[in-house]
Amino acid sequence: RRGEFVAELAVYDEAKRLYQQLVRDGRKELEDDLADLCFHKARIHLATADGHGAFGEYDHAIAILERLVEQEGRRELTDHLATVYMNKALAVRALGDNRGSVALCDQAITIWERLVNQEGRSELVDALIHGYVNKANAVCAQGDNRGAVALYDKSIAILERLVNQEGRSELAEYLATAYTNKAVAIGDLGDNCGAVALYDQAIAIRERLANQDNRNELTDDLAKVYFSKANAVCAQGDNRGAVALYDQAIAIWEQLVNNEGLIELANNLATGFMSKATAVSALGNNRGAVALYDQAIVIWERLVNQEGRRELANDLARAYMNKA
């Protein structure tokens, strides 16, 4: 696959050279096409893990679009400029620069807020929502959970209106994700009761999507919310309630891993067994806890020793230690 990317980059390089020559020769109407080419070329660089090359192409696209929008009045390109800012923000964050990502998110959000709220571009509201969420994720990664919550609230307010009042049912999954993200942030702030309430809202949506709308691809997401709620309930001291929730998550992951062959979710299943074991032990059932640790160990031994998942070795060691 890498060879295909290298070949694609060679084609993009030649196309970019030709476009730049045409623009220098006076074909100014091709500048927005050149910016679009740089934008797509950046994504190919990212696919080859060439962050430096990607940032160079994003910056080239941004420089062109900023001049066209701000100096030459090409207002129809404003949304495209915001999209490039946001894509660069995601790429920057993937390399660990959350501060730089937040700054780029701000530039994109400023544009989309004006387009949506002042100019009535309602078709861009989805982009604005994603802007808030992406910035919230970066802010959260910086340790500012309170700031993240405020941003998640902005996205939730829009999504609740679109889903519950305007019938945009295709956005229900995003609303559930927003509830979950906010739950994690306020849980980190110590508000486990508030987190549980938000997890319940997410669960209600995901249960409907997975069970009533037959969105089987979303069952793993449902299991993850059960698991996260279980952790929050456990933090409240309700180990019995946590065990019931872990059971719901485990039942889904066992179905997906053992019956549907989704072995990439085996680590989730092992983590479910491990967490349930801790709660069961806290209830005084050490025999039951040992059986659960054994189930986690069997999975992690295979993943670490046979499949080379060395990053899971610490989890395996912890399971051995807890069982002992």
Protein architecture, described:
- This protein is mainly alpha-helical.
- It has 14 helices and no strands.
- It starts with a helix and ends with a helix.
- The mean pLDDT is 94.
Computed over alpha carbons, the radius of gyration is: 24 Å
Query: Which residues form runs of ≥5 with pLDDT under 50?
Result: none
Largest sheet: none
Strand content: under 5%
The number of distinct helices, counting runs of at least 4 residues, comes to: 14
Q: What oligomerization state is this entry in? A: single chain
Please estimate the helix content: over 70%
Explain the layout of strands and helices.
Blueprint: H1 2-24, H2 31-47, H3 51-70, H4 78-94, H5 98-118, H6 125-141, H7 145-165, H8 172-188, H9 192-212, H10 219-235, H11 239-259, H12 266-282, H13 286-306, H14 313-323
Helix pairs in contact: 1-2, 2-3, 3-4, 4-5, 4-6, 5-6, 6-7, 7-8, 8-9, 9-10, 10-11, 10-12, 11-12, 12-13, 13-14
Features:
324 residues, single chain, 14 helices, globular, mainly alpha, 81% helix
Short description:
The protein is mainly α and 324 residues long. It has helices spanning 2-24, 31-47, 51-70, 78-94, 98-118, 125-141, 145-165, 172-188, 192-212, 219-235, 239-259, 266-282, 286-306, 313-323.
